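User: Could you check the structure of this?
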Amino acid sequence: MIRNATLDDLPAIIEIYNTSIPGRMATADLEPVTVASRMDWFTAHSPELRPLWVLEVDDKIRAWLSFRSFYGRAAYRHTAEISVYVSPDCYRQKLGDKLLSQAILVTSSLDLKTLVAFIFAHNQPSLNLFKKHDFQQWGYLPQIAELNGIDRDLVILGKQVG
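Assistant: Sure, the predicted structure tokens are below.
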């Protein structure tokens, strides 16, 4: 079941996020984050404009998706950055696919015309997921992040939705 996240869900959201850090595939954070450090991020979401969703399986949060305003300027108000994180024990179960499909379906109700995603070039599973949903490569930033002493590239994907 996909639903809007509540404050009570934040520890589970952070737990899933933190499991992605050691693999150096999905985030540029190098150390685990805390619930307290993510409170402003959490409260910046709203179900009507920039939702934060969780996906539950067997009454446990297994994945989440967030919409975030792009670049913080008024002219970009119809564009959102989208992020998807899945619990490692649920990889290859199409949870990210379900979340991304639902996100694309609701874009008009969120007054969005464009979705963008920032994905490391070595994160082939995420690139495949977004490309499956017709996201196109709109940009490429070579060697923009250093992860474990390795310079990593960032791919900017985008999709016109409205």
